[in-house]
Every structure is written in structure tokens, then in C-alpha cells.
Design goal:
alpha+beta
């Protein structure tokens, strides 16, 4: 469907903060720097696209310290946007006497989005076998117990694990645009339905019996509408990050804006409802959640918690900002500009409303 344009700039996305190949800190004094040497080096990485029906592979070439005991358990994480990926932690056991050029093939459980990722490794001295713990205890100057767990983050650009091919990058951009466009269309549709219905009530064309507002019927409609809006907000808040983690992790700023847009639509609906109630001298309608009704559970996700007054212009700015982030328009070809007609291209979801 052709998107009816609805609706400030976004919240800042989570940035890659302080990423470096760095050591850990003592648990006794977090400000005390405990020196210890790197026990692992990420020499190189290679991305292998997923075969049909298979999974992506990250081929890591690693060097290990000559001081590291055989059998050491090492926790490995992939860091993206400054945070380890949830559900992708692996436990690597150092088993071979060979120390240089060890190849480890890592197959992430969920598809990774096209971007740079970083390796974070950790040795917990308290979570080793008896034999390994005994060896560590004899090397306290190299592996200081006060620094436990021994953490290294290979967060410099030269250590970046580059995921994705050019073809995958293009496909991801298309998916990003499609996903966000779908959510925006849904929010637009929700708002237009609500506003159209409430305006009909104001004009005596809907939920009206002989000029008297059918308050019970109107309350049922508002509750049903909030269920729908709550379903949309739940999909944005919970389902989207869960079902499309690769797209979500790549678009954190756009997602923050989308969450904001959902709250703005919900708050605008409440404000519009209150204005109609005041004009028609109706007692305020506040649909309550019925804990015994499963259909009402989604009302918990109806979130109108936006701090500021919501205007049509504010809604449009937020929507446009999302599109700029995930659906950048191709550069226009140079040519003769069309004649001015005085008309806007694309409609407003609130056309005719001056407020």
C-alpha cells in the first residue's frame, strides 16, 4: 500500500565504546590496574558465507601463550556495538601442544548481520580442572589471581571480524527497509483508524444512538484498538529483536526511534480521546486490563509514556528520521526540475487537521 505519511531526531545508538585489546581489573579494587600478559592472540579472521540450509562460519587463526596450561577453558564472545551477543558465548578448551596458527571455526547460532564484530576472551581461574588450576597457581605472576577473570577484548580495528559479502550487504539493506516500513505502515494504519473513528463519534456518525453517544460501544472499541496498538508495540519491542537479531543489532538507532514512534502514536491517541470526551462532555474512558481474559494480556504493551506533547509535525519528523536511517533514497538524476504546483507529493495521515 502507498504509505500515508504520518507523523526528533533519534536517540543515540549504542556505540562501540572503549573497545581495545585491554586487560581486566582486580576485584578488590576496581581502580587498581593489575598487569598480566595476553595469553591469546587473534592473528586473522575469515568470514565464510552460509551454504544453502547451513550456517555462517568465522574462521579464526589464533596464537596461544607458551605459559598457558593445556586444558585451559576459555570463554569466547562476539562483541557488537559494545556488547557481547546474547546466546553466542562458547567455551573453548585449549587442548593441543601446538601454540601457533591454531584454526578455530566458529559457527554462530543465529545469522550475523553484515558488520564488524570483535573477539572477547576470558579465563576464569576458579572454573578450571584441578590439574589446570594447580598449574595456574604456580604462575601467579603471569596469571595474577587478583585479576580474575582474565579478560582481553580485541576491539581495535585491525582485529575486526568482518562479516558479510557485498551481496549480503545489499540484501540486508533491503530487509532493513522492508521491516521498518512494515512497522511504520502498521502504526500509520492504527492511528488513522483511531482518529477516523473518534472524529466520527464527534460528528455523531459513529457509536451514536439518536444523537447520544453509545459509551459502552465506544469503550469496547477503544479497548480493542489499544489491544491492536499494544500488539504492534510488542512486536517492535520484543518480537523484532528476537526474530531478526541481525537486522536489529545493525539498526539500534532506528529501532530506538521506532519505539519512540510507537509511544508517540499511543500518547496522541490518548490526547485525542480526551479532547473528544471533553468536547462531548463524556466521562473519561479508561479500559482496564482483565487478567482473566487472555486477549487483554497484550494491553501491558500499550505504552503511551512519551514525555512531551505529540504533534503531527513531531510524528512526521520521527518517521522521516527512521527512513533516512534504514531506507536511504538513491541520488536523484540531474535534470529539469518539475514545475511548481503548490501541492505536496504524498498525503498526510492527518490531512485537514490544523492542530
Amino acid at each position: 500500500m502507498k504509505l500515508a505519511r504520518l507523523f526528533l531526531p533519534a536517540l543515540a545508538g549504542v556505540a562501540l565504546v572503549g573497545l581495545s585489546c585491554s586487560r581486566g581489573f582486580t576485584q578488590d579494587d576496581p581502580n587498581e590496574d593489575i598487569e598480566y600478559k595476553a595469553y591469546l592472540e587473534l592473528v586473522s579472521s575469515q568470514y565464510i558465507p552460509a551454504p544453502k540450509g547451513g550456517k555462517q562460519t568465522l574462521k579464526l587463526r589464533l596464537n596461544f601463550s607458551s605459559d598457558l596450561p593445556l586444558g585451559t577453558k576459555i570463554q569466547m564472545d562476539l562483541v557488537h556495538n559494545g556488547l557481547p551477543l546474547i546466546g553466542e558465548t562458547i567455551s573453548y578448551v585449549f587442548k593441543t601442544a601446538k601454540r601457533k596458527g591454531i584454526i578455530h571455526e566458529w559457527m554462530p547460532k543465529k545469522a550475523l548481520g553484515v558488520d564488524n564484530y570483535y573477539l572477547r576472551v576470558q579465563i576464569d581461574l576458579l572454573d578450571q580442572t584441578t590439574k589446570v588450576s594447580k598449574e595456574f597457581s604456580g604462575k601467579k605472576t603471569i596469571f595474577p589471581p587478583k585479576a580474575n577473570p582474565l579478560v582481553w577484548l580485541y576491539g581495535q580495528e585491525k582485529y575486526a571480524i568482518k562479516v558479510g559479502t557485498e551481496e549480503e550487504r545489499k540484501a540486508q539493506e533491503d530487509i532493513m527497509c522492508t521491516v521498518y516500513d512494515g512497522f511504520i505502515n502498521e502504526l500509520v494504519s492504527n492511528w488513522n483508524d483511531f482518529k477516523g473513528t473518534l472524529d466520527g463519534v464527534r460528528e455523531g456518525k459513529k457509536y451514536s444512538n439518536s444523537g447520544v453517544v453509545d459509551r459502552k460501544g465506544l469503550e469496547a472499541y477503544i479497548k480493542k484498538w489499544r489491544r491492536q496498538q499494544g500488539t504492534t508495540q510488542k512486536a517492535i519491542l520484543v518480537d523484532f529483536p528476537t526474530n531478526r537479531p541481525a537486522v536489529h543489532s545493525k539498526t539500534l538507532t532506528a529501532h530506538a526511534n521506532l519505539l519512540r514512534l510507537g509511544r508517540m502514536v499511543s500518547k496522541r491517541s490518548v490526547s485525542h480521546q480526551r479532547a473528544v470526551e471533553k468536547e462531548l462532555r463524556l466521562q473519561a474512558i479508561n479500559p482496564r486490563l482483565d487478567t482473566k481474559n487472555k486477549a487483554d494480556a497484550v494491553l501491558r504493551f500499550f505504552d503511551a509514556g512519551f514525555r512531551f506533547k505529540v504533534s503531527k509535525e513531531g510524528l512526521n519528523r520521527t518517521m522521516d528520521n527512521i527512513y533516512r536511517l534504514v531506507c536511504p533514497e538513491p541520488e536523484e538524476e540531474s535534470g529539469e526540475a518539475p514545475a511548481e504546483t503548490g501541492e505536496k507529493t504524498g498525503g498526510d495521515a492527518e490531512a485537514g487537521e490544523g492542530r
